[in-house]
Sequence to fold (794 residues):
Amino acid sequence: MTLLKRGLSRRRVLQTGLAGIIGTGVAPMIFTKGAWAQEFCNNPTGDTVTFGLNLPLTGAYAEEGADEQKAYELAIKHLNGEGDGGLLNVLQPSALKGNGILGKKVAFVSSDSQTKSDVARAGATRMIERDGAIMITGGSSSGEAIAVQGLCQEMGVIFMAGLTHSNDTTGKDKKRYGFRHFFNAYQSGIGLAPVLGQEYGMDRRAYHLTADYTWGWTQEESIKNATEAMGWNTVAAVRTPLGSTDYSQYLTPILNSGADVLILNHYGLDMVNSLTQAVQFGMRDRQANGKDFQIVTPLISELMAKGAGESVKGIFGTSNWHWNLQDAGTIAFTKSFGAAYGSPPSQAAHTAYVQALLYADAVERAGTFYPPEVIKALEGHEFDGMGNGATLYRAEDHQCIKNVLVVRGNESPTSEFDVLNVVQEVPRETVAYDPAIFGGELGPSEPVPMC
Amino acid sequence: MFEVIFLQFLNGLDKGAAYALIALGLTLVFGTLGVVNFAHGALFMLGAFCAVLFRQLITLETVTLDPTKLSPWGSPLEIREPLVQAWFGDFGAVLLNYSVLFSILLTIPVMLVVGIALERGIIKHFYKRPHAEQILVTFGLAIVAQELIKSFFGPNPIPQPMPTDLRGAADIGAFLGMQANVITYPIWRLIYFLFAAVIIGGVFAFLQFTTFGMVVRAGMADRETVGLLGINIDKRFTIMFGLAAVVAGMAGVMYTPLLPPNYHIGMDFLVLSFVVVVVGGMGSLPGAVAAGFLLGILQSFASMTQVKDLIPGIDQIIIYLVAVVILLVRPRGLLGRRGVMEA
Fold:
């Protein structure tokens, strides 16, 4: 009150306050873009920025992990302006310049997740805390993806998921800091069921063998729902441990179960083993209920098809992408990857490569590495040219909505790589769904946790 | 229902054959040398990798570029031709097709040398040491073998194709005069079962009907007395160790078409085989075989949906449950000698 008596007016108080703000250096943090730039995990201060690649290089999904690693290394080369540029040339719209990200060269560190969720989480923690990774990406199992996604939400680091197909990844376990380009089990069911009905009829009895973890459960549920909706019955659904090698004890009960279709909710080496052994048990030569016995693998990749060899011929499944599509993006990526590694890329490699580019593009568009701004740039982003047609990164659940492929094991391959044929491209409108059906909460992007 | 039970029984025999074959070597070493050999699983794994190595050798290729054809990424197409086929023509093709069976010819001498070198080089120094030390040193050997294989062949499984005409299933139902296409079973699994039966029978016959076997059996019963008779029992036991290594190695080779081998495959089987040996009775050959088949069959039936509906997860624990019961009720195992493993 004494101050006012000396004649300190409101104007004088405001002037003094403003001078104080400017004097203490707070003003630039209020009035300039990127004011929050100092306040997030692993803010890159040097001339490089580091990606953390979390890859299953051993375990049931090791082949996918190895292919993902090749794709990430190629993507990083292209982002840094090396090589032929790959999909940088065809991504629309694109803010990428081929000079790194925001002028910083991209580097990477990697960790073998061993296809185990706890190891994946530990590896991601190490890459964030020790190696200063700005973004974590990779993985080939939904168990890993969900575990790492949760960690990234806690640490304030963006996670661009690799191959993960469980509905839970962008469903009940979705996170604000997690993004998935790969399609999901629900979309596999919607895309695959009509083709199965057309090929095998509406009166079928199915027996499911299911990998006993989040992905297997949601795929089993999705395929059951989709096939039962068109008239099929489910005889039994039996869970098998992830990483099982000998499926004989699970296969023998099927032979006289009354089923005429075996649905293998397995992936990677598990699927190679179970499919090969099912064929060894003579299932594809059997008759049941007056019909030819059939085997279906709802999620299949060219790596698995190659591993299963003869057994995969004529088998139906779905894929996120396939290298022999004829759009400009697919041709560019296949050419780039094939020239570098001598084999066409798998769907795991494709999704890994695309995720790396999409993150980099989002950072360029946001003009900052600050995660909440990058998240905003990714949410609701529409793009094209990456091999899947027009694609939406849906804001509500961070699931990419795009075309889904129904594929079939090639009966007469012309080369060792020519193992799958695309029989149908299911348009994205058909496989889009209400994100609310799987529940879950994305959670906040701010305040940004500090790792 | 009969078909289901019959198939599960067949499946149990198939699994049991694998367990019995590994447990046989394990209990043979324990019965002759008194050594608890935790490296026995590694011998199974080394055998499997003899098959892998053999296949890699015979699939060495020549690569030529065909500029008239392009790969999907625009480079000239690579034409690959196996050298063995170029050199041996039709026989080369047969060699490639039956590589698993031919690889046994490589496996037998390799495993014999490995077994004898292991026994003479390391294990003989631990005969009179406590079982705990034997377990430590043999477990260490197993880890060394695993890491060596991992560094040469990588960490991931390497599929081995089975011969084309032995793929698919045999119609056992029709063979037994029943309805066709009801009881079918994979041909290679039947071959594996027959192979195991022949090897087990051969080992028993060798021990039962040869002078060498008679001396070994006498040494197993009373080593000192046999030594006092002027017989070099140590030499015979060394050969038995080599023989056990050969049996484990051949079991590994024949299993490769069923399960792509990786460096860890031996450890997966070792634990189960030890349970088999304990259930059968440490050092008892008939016990190991009987317990192998018994546990294989029990595991197979425990995997039936009807059983799993009653007791979820029973297929994963049945073997260990039986082991616990046996150790509580009859510590020396089903056919073990009185006093062994008993207080």
Remarks:
- The beta strands of chain B are 61-70, 76-82, 169-171, 184-186.
- The radius of gyration of chain B is 22 Å.
- Residues 171 and 177 of chain B are 10 Å apart (CA to CA).
- The longest strand of chain B covers residues 61-70.
